[in-house]
Please model this.
Amino acid sequence: MRALVTGGAGFLGSHLCERLLKDGHEVICLDNFFSGKRQNVKHLVPNPNFELIRHDVVEPILLEVDRIFHLACPASPVHYQYNPVKTIKTSVMGTINMLGLAKRVRARILLTSTSEVYGDPEQHPQTESYWGHVNPIGVRSCYDEGKRVAECLMMDYHRQNNIDIRIVRIFNTYGPRMAINDGRVVSNFCVAALRGENLEIFGDGEQTRAFAYVDDMIDALVRMMNQEQHIGPINIGNPDEFTIKELAKLAIDLARSSSKVVIKPARPDDPVRRRPNIELAKKVLGWQPTTPLIVGLQKSLDHFRDELGIKEA
Ligand SMILES: NC(=O)c1ccc[n+]([C@@H]2O[C@H](COP(=O)([O-])OP(=O)(O)OC[C@H]3O[C@@H](n4cnc5c(N)ncnc54)[C@H](O)[C@@H]3O)[C@@H](O)[C@H]2O)c1
Model:
């Protein structure tokens, strides 16, 4: 199979390209390098089955492919709020362009949607049938509403044009190749702990998140694409819930750091709880996460240590 991975030079995309090549596929990696970087896929460039294209998904492109993994979209608030209009354009126009491509070449297309479509949820844990509680005019709406429209487009192209679609809703994922300046909590805590700087908690630290390790996530994306049973949306994430305080303590302990935790004012529209119900993924994909937080966090710290050029204590 020839697979297109949009956003392929990003955190998840680069791991996905690696996995698809390992599975014996040809891979076209397409990226505008907004939040991704060449470095993430540099080691794949010599592989004759790999091709890297600099392209912005807001513009149409014609390629001959069998599968489209549509990931292109900045995922961290720091990145997606940098140019919110561009973020929503990427989600909406990018998804239209990729669906147009899927239609022309009759490719199956998978969208990486997000748990952010649930907003600040009133239902715990969130099942796929929950419609969400999103602020449509807040500073996160460019991302949240962008993904909601992207899901809508996927469903409408499916109903109207019979496009073969798959939708996954990804919950917080972490691991090696997250950008140092990514601004999400795992990278912030790892980098601060390694540098011996304060770990900043916004709000009281009792807000919970559930963290999935990147290898588990990539396995789920591949399984979702390869199965015939369900088009989604399907939640993919790790249902083990941790408070932000617990995460901070673990990062400090594993890094054997002298860093301290400091409390800052809560951020607007920051969800209080976020935990996936993954029963559907278990049933349809035969999948569940296998990497414990302590193992994944250690691997992430090793990555950030390399990136920062810090020797292990
Ligand atoms: N990592 C997570 O926890 C998480 C959670 C939910 C959803 N997701 C989704 O997974 C996908 C990948 O996220 P990630 O964590 O790897 O983020 P990332 O920022 O590392 O990757 C996104 C990639 O898309 C590229 N990109 C952005 N705009 C583009 C455009 N207009 N044209 C072409 N390329 C563009 C970026 O340069 C980057 O390489 C995104 O769609 C994101 O919404 C991720």
